[in-house]
Amino acid sequence: MVASDWTRLAEEMGYGYLEIKNFEASTNPTAKVLEDWQGKCFRATVGGLLEMLTRIERHDILTDLKQKIEDDCRKYVDQQQKQYSLPLQDPVVGSSFPRSHELSGITTRDDPLGNTPELFDAFICYCQNDIQFVHEMIRQLEQTDFKLKLCVFDRDVLPGTCVWSITSELIEKRCRKMVVVISDDYLASSECDFQTKFALGLCPGAREKRLIPVKYKPMKKEFPSILRFITVCDYTNPCTQGWFWNRLARALSNM
Asked: Is 107 in contact with 118 (CB distance < 8 Å)?
């Protein structure tokens, strides 16, 4: 499968055939497209660009440029703060903590100041059609003697945050392991694909046993090739189903 190039990105930005042909004459068509898009589009933001890269499935770019994007955004914010002086305000009128820290929390139990980020035993990678099994996972692993703490995006992440950046933060810095719920629907999910590849990129060859694939129902499609070298926790095998939750819990609690 050939990865989408700058022409696919230009199409996603709304450029037509003739405009794209004009960009080809440039020595750096990608830079020319981004420059032109920034000058004429009100949605020419970092978030808008990340959304388009996600839609054209260039998750490799998102992963490779993550740190650079964050650094550039931080520099831009610093420049804006230096350029515009903030009006004086009585602290009694303002909020109970500095405005710059108001959005530091990304999960429901985060300290709003960002001083004590919420940590988890495992990030659960799943698609919406498999949410019922995720509920069962919560009952078996959190609400029993195992007392594990799972990061379930729909339950634990505050709304209004950038899905890509928050997911990366959770997988890389907040969660010790990651459970990948494998199903036919998982194979069709671009979000699950990004999360899995991002986690594998943090731990090449899964030497730290960061990823734990879980197969919970029979599949019609072929098992994902990028996970074939990792031992699977198989809920579909009736002979080993009685050991399933204990094995999974021990894998997650193992440092």
From this structure: yes
Residues contacting residue 224 through CB under 8 Å, at least 6 positions apart: 182, 186, 187, 196
Q: What angle do CA 232, 157, 126 make, to 5 degrees?
A: 25
Q: H or E stretch including 215?
A: strand 211-215
**Side-chain-facing half-sphere of 86: CA atoms under 13 Å:** 10
Residues 151 and 174 sit within 8 Å (Cβ to Cβ)? yes
Q: Do the strands 120-125 and 175-182 form a parallel or antiparallel pair, or are they unpaired?
A: parallel
Q: Is the pLDDT of residue 140 over 60?
A: yes
Q: What order of strands is seen across the sheet that includes strand 211-215?
A: 150-151, 120-125, 175-182, 211-215, 233-234
Please give the pLDDT value at position 99: 35
Q: How many helices (H) and strands (E) does the chain have?
A: 12, 5
Phi, psi of 225 (to 5 degrees): -65, -30
Which residue from 189, 165, 191, 249 is spatially nearest to 157, judged by alpha carbons? 165
> What are the pLDDT digits (tens) for 225-253?
888 888 899 999 998 889 999 999 999 98
Task: Report the candidate in 62, 46, 58 with the shortest Cα–Cα distance to residue 2.
Answer: 58
Cβ atoms of 153 and 191 closer than 8 Å? no
Say if CB 215 and CB 236 are below 8 A apart.
Answer: yes
How high is the pLDDT of residue 132?
96
Q: How far apart are CA 201 and CA 226, in angstroms?
A: 11
